[in-house]
Specification:
Elements: E1 3-7, E2 10-13, E3 18-25, E4 34-39, E5 46-51, E6 68-73, E7 78-83, E8 92-99, E9 114-117, E10 121-126
Parallel strand pairs: 2-10
Antiparallel strand pairs: 1-3, 3-7, 4-5, 4-8, 6-7, 8-9, 8-10
Amino acid sequence: QVQLVESGGGLVQAGGSLRLSCAASGRTFSRFTMGWFRQAPGKEREFVTAISWDDAATPYAESVKGRFTISKDNAQNTVYLQMNSLKFEDTAVYYCAIDRIPLSTAYYSSPTTYDYWGQGTQVTVSS
């Protein structure tokens, strides 16, 4: 049974920082690409960033490029999202997800690439 558990969300002032974590179990973590998505109220879920299974690729959405950093620790089966210079428009529920295919390096930004999702963690940025 694959499980993804996010943590680290909260309330922060604009310009502040948060670090999200996503602990994975039930799959050989090091063989799978991991992604972060977010969904704001009244909006569709959108791609934020991903990290390929081999760490070779870390694509970012334009809206977060230069402010957010994804990383992972294979020994801890955990993927992180460091968010700096947060803006009001970053307010959303953030979800991590795991690729459905091992050793895959394609279609990072498509939600259909991923077959398991965490429950989400709320990030609220006050202006």
